[in-house]
Amino acid sequence: MKKTIITALWTLLLVSCLTVPAFAQELLLGGQVVGVQISMKGVLVAGLSQVETAEGSCSPAKDAGVQQGDVILKAGGQTVSKAADVIAAVEQAGGAPVELELERGEKTMRLSVQPARSAEGQWLLGMWLRDGVTGIGTVTFQDPESGVYGALGHSVCDSDSGILLPLEQGSICDAQIIGINPGAAGSPGELNGCADLGKTLGSIELNTDCGIFGESYGALGSRKIESGAMATGPATMISTLSGRVTGEYQVEINRIYRDGGGEHALISVTDPELLEKTGGIVQGMSGSPLIQNGKLVGAVTHVFVRL
Fold first, then answer.
1. Model pTM?
2. pLDDT (tens digit, 9 = 90+) per residue, 104-149?
């Protein structure tokens, strides 16, 4: 299955990054919203902070050599899977140094951190921790033969630091849109969704710069479509604005950029209905498929905020 999912990643690279002039693989078209749940391998150090003590401020974790982006695997000799495990290890130490086993890139290391006692009497290491994420996103495609799907069009990252979350396990689940906060000057807007965590639709096996990938437990679409290359000009976008019903909306592909990471496009919304309801592209539409000349040519990944 890993090999099959890697093939799906290559498919999305072809569809989203446009690295080949044409790639006519038949896929099931996405556009439906799903809930996204990701549990991390260990606990991510999302940031370092100061601890205010009676003697002044200090940053124990930073002083010990901990860096933003490190993943804590063990604290006080115990394997950790959530932020509460790290907090418990510090409390159990009662002010004694806490040994952390960290993963930094491909390296594993151990650091001893001396907690600091805050003005409120709590022992702290001075770290912001992240142990998982939940949210909503849009399915881009599904391979009808293997059940492998691609969604989001971008990685799932820590919302504060922007660091890609190291995936331990994850799932997609049934979801629906219950409201819209339209985009406006200085605000990206968003789709407000409600996810049914008890109705799992598939696994998440990869979290990559091009999206999330996994195996679905059933069909995520019914419309078959070939993939192809993108060009400037009119196109349509498939997305969900209400409930579970997908719609097709007019957009314009304004420009195609080529760089070392592939090819990317700047699009603008021209559909009157979509502009009225959302103001343009909003958060939650990430992964929405782009169709041009009857072929799947890309996926929405980010929104530009007007100032």
1. 0.79
2. 988 999 999 999 999 889 999 999 998 888 889 999 999 888 888 9
- Our CA angle for 82, 152, 301, nearest 5°, is 120
Active site residue 154: yes
70, 154, 216, 288: the active-site residue: 154
Say whether 174 is catalytic: no
Mark whether 271 is an active-site residue.
yes
pLDDT tens-digit series, residues 238-265: 999 999 999 999 999 998 887 766 678 8
